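User: Some background: our group keeps a shared notebook of sequences we're curious about, and every so often someone picks one and asks for a predicted structure to add to the entry. Today it's my turn. The entry only has the sequence so far, pasted here. Could you supply the structure so I can complete it?
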Amino acid sequence: MIVSCENCQRRYRIKPDTIHKLKHSIRCAHCGRRLRLSPIALAEKESRRSPIVAEDAKMTQWRAGPQMGRTQWVETPFSFLRVDLKGWINGICGKMILLFLILPAAIMVASSLISMWQLTALTKLINRENSRLAAWLAEDKSVEVCRAVAAQVGLYLKSHPRLHPTKLMQDPHFKRIAVQKVGRNRHTVLYQISNKNSSLHIWSHPDPAIIGKDLKRRHKAALSAVSQANYNQFVNIVLGARGLKESRGNYKILDANGNVRDEFRICTPIEGTPYVITVGTYTDDFVLPVQQVETRAAQQTTAIARIIILTTAVTLTVIAFAVFLFGQRLRWHILQLIQQADRIGMGDLKGHIKTDRTDELGDLAGAIGRLRDSMRLALRRPN
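Assistant: Of course. Here's the predicted structure to add to the notebook entry:
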């Protein structure tokens, strides 16, 4: 407990356990005046053992009143903003932080992380399926064009049976039928499979300089630069059309810019002739637009993730600020009521409790005020 000298305003802290040894009075070391301890103060030996009152003694700030020889509470408009970390953790504010901040924050962070994970997984799944679908459409488009060209060329050759292979590209009608564009810059090609040495002579091509050359030799350098297995795969595909069997497959090839690219090739034989229509298409020519969509989708996913993170952070900040203000103000009023009850316990029955609260704390303050009034009336009654 704290005792103040009414003469010089000096204050002394007395342990409740030593009150019975002081013979109900002590002497001020500054002015020499003897300070008498009231009988009510003797009961502080038991009341001071309460952990709530002990904590209040640490949190309470005192000063000597300018006119009254007793201790008074020092209060400012922002007094409730003073924070005691230990009191926060062990008191009601710590429980409020746990219930209204930490648990909601954990739930919000977990839900945000799950939402971002699901959004990212969904974006990857859609992009993967779109790429696979685009590659399948590219192959299907090549097969459709190759078969249609083979059918048209077959009909034209049947109507022109004496047309020599070296004269095919000189016929503008045949050239328009046999050479058709597929994808960005690929075209259908007609070649002939030799039964003697399995050579593949090209008889229709957009580049006239290639007419009559071997198809295998023309692509050997670009295919072997990647690996010999790619060249062997290409040879198996173009020779697989022998015997009126359609042949198709994928391999890697080095393009004109030195990039290794995936190529799909379809070879469709022309019925009743030694000729074959083939076309090789780069898969990424069809997948590139899808990849651009994937890039935009990834950017959009990143933007959404940032919005989720920002929204979560702002929400948690607002909740933390609200919990701090409400909890600190609530704790401040509770500590004031504890101090008033402590004053009554030390025999200070003057003054009254001022509060503008209309909740349970206001009712508690009114009850403490009525208790003070009752004790004041009881002390005034004659024995």
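Suggested note for the entry: The longest strand covers residues 260-269. The chain is about 55% helix and 15% strand.
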